[in-house]
Amino acid sequence: MARAQRPIRERTRTVPVAMAEEPRAAAWLRDFRLSGFTLSMLLLIVAALVVLAPSLKTFVEQRQQIAALEQQVADAQADVDDITAEIDRWSDPAYIEAQARDRLYYVYPGDITFLVIGNDDAGLDEGGLPISDEIQTTQVDWVRALLSTVYQAGLTDATPDQLESPQQGG
Question: How many CB atoms sit inside 10 A of residue 99's CB?
């Protein structure tokens, strides 16, 4: 019996087979070789970390303390600069005179001063807004109001006792 020969193509035909891929971590661990040199270097690195960690901690703490002390020195220097500026102001006779006029109400002989007592709204205008140093337009015709006050005062029939303010009466 003679065997039938198959064509050559069929004998060399390969069938693809899907194999599960190996995870990367497993491939890395499989290829990892631990030699004596590598082990000794790892031990040296760990020993250096153990020895240097307390010193590094002390260094960082000291740097933080130095930064805090430098901030205190800067604050103290700012205070000294403020006090020096205050001393320089008080060495100026014009500043001393202005402070005596403002704080102690000192005046030169012949000066006429007015002191408003009980003015709780000092520094505020009639609307409750802060007084500004900018030019503003007036809301009232003050010239007409002044003239009408003078006119009314001149033509009134009230006695001086009736015209006296209750706050001025004594």
Answer: 13
What distance in Å separates the CA atoms of residue 58 and residue 63, rounded to the nearest whole number?
9
Q: How far apart are CA 79 and CA 87, in angstroms?
A: 12
71 phi/psi in degrees, rounded to 5: -65, -40
* CB contact burial 111-133 (16+ within 10 A = b; e otherwise): eeeeeeeeeeeeeeeeeeeeeee
Query: Rounded to whole angstroms, how far apart are CA atoms 130 and 8?
Result: 109
Which residue type occupies 141? Answer: D
Tell me the H-state helices in the chain: 8-11, 24-31, 36-90, 93-104, 142-155, 160-163
| pLDDT in single tens digits along all 170 residues of the chain | 556 665 555 566 677 777 777 777 777 777 777 788 888 999 999 999 899 899 999 999 999 999 999 999 999 999 999 999 999 999 999 999 999 988 888 888 888 887 777 766 555 556 666 667 777 676 777 788 888 888 887 888 877 777 776 565 44
Handedness of CA 74, 79, 80, 86 (dihedral sign): positive
Extended strands (E) in 26-136: none
